[in-house]
Amino acid sequence: MDPTIIIAGLIVGVLVGLTGMGGGALMTPVLVLVFGVQPLAAVSSDLVVSLFMKPVGGLVHLRRGTVHFELVKWLCVGSVPAAFGGVLLLRALGNGESVQDIVKVALGVALLLAVITMCARGLLDLRRHGRAWRSGTVGTGHAGSGPVAVKILPTIVIGIIGGVVVGMTSVGSGSLIIVLLLVLYPRLRAGELVGTDLVQAVPLVGAAALGHAIFGDVQLALTVGLLVGAIPGVWIGARLSSSAPQMVVRRALALVLIASGLKLLNASNGQLLLALVVVGIAGPLLWMAARRAVGLPASWRTERRLTATSTPDQAPVAT
Question: How many C-alpha atoms does 309 have within 13 Å on its Cβ side?
């Protein structure tokens, strides 16, 4: 068993537990770009590993009662068969080098899509937080409360979209689906959003893993090595999540995903460096502008200071 694979699984597991991001967006590009694993084998093995990691977070939310079971049901109606169908679609595209190239390109696109959905989720959360800030309900639990009516057909469609993407690339169960849910159900509380996504991801990833076990390229030694590192890593990351600087970690991960996605799409080193410099400079400036646009202080540190100095029945005033 390769110790470097175990270490890679441990690092990715910690990051998954720390940030709640899906392992596919992190594990698969590491296997392809760092260890030279063929893209199809990387996707197949990662899905099997994710099948063991997903229940860890799901069980936590089940105990907390932050799972919307009606949403889980209709998401699974779309995602479970679609995930298996995504594997069949890969098989129908052919074998050998051609399908490896297709998986590599699809994975690169999926990673960049994951970054876009991360940004979209951040903006949607920011808008929600801005409304709570202006109404003086920050931290009271009032924002987004109340029953959520399930929209059956759109929810099934979200499941289908996420299922196909996960089946083909292993990316999307923790990024794409959760953002689409946030768009469709803006009143869903943050805890319910994450808990619902984690629980529905278990049968979704299970269907995709089964498809890859039958038709894909699951490598037993690779998968076992990743599991040995990833399972304790998720537990460690979950323990650290309450004290880690989430904003800093997520920004760093976004840069890693951008770099991985562009590299999988055969970007040159010069193009890669230019993209990272532009994103690294423009990103924080755009984020400060977005905070101002929803009525928040440009800096989260200023927000924390104002919140700490305001009285419970007095809404903080942005300066």
Answer: 9
Alpha carbons 48 and 205: distance in angstroms, whole number? 8
How much is the pLDDT for 146? 58
Q: Which helix (H) or strand (E) holds 20?
A: none
Residue 268 in this model has a pLDDT that exceeds 90: no
Task: State CA 90 to chain mean position distance.
Answer: 22
Dist CA 157 CA 224 (whole Å): 34
Q: Are 104 and 32 in contact (CB under 8 A)?
A: yes
213-218 CB contacts, 8 Å cutoff, 24+ apart: 213/44, 213/48, 214/87, 215/87, 215/88, 215/90, 215/91, 216/40, 216/41, 216/43, 216/44, 216/87, 216/90, 217/38, 217/40, 217/41, 217/44, 218/41, 218/44, 218/45, 218/48
Q: Is 174 helix (H, G, I), strand (E, B) or coil?
A: coil
Domain boundaries, the chain: 3-307
Cα pseudo-dihedral 116, 122, 123, 125, rounded to 10: 140
> Which of 116, 115, 87 has the alpha carbon at shortest distance from 29?
115
Say which amino acid occupies 66.
T
- CA dihedral for 94, 96, 97, 101, sign (positive or negative): positive
Q: What is the pLDDT of residues 101-131, one digit of tens each?
A: 888 888 888 888 888 887 887 888 888 778 8
**Contact 175/136 with Cβ under 8 angstroms?**
no
Calculate ∠ Cα 241-245-251, nearest 5°. 110
Question: b or e along 4-27 (b: 16 or more beta carbons within 10 Å of the residue's beta carbon)?
Answer: ebbebbbbbbbbbbbbbbbbbbbb
DSSP for 36-80 reads ---HHHHHHHHHHHHHHHHHHHHHHHHHHT---HHHHHHHHHHHH
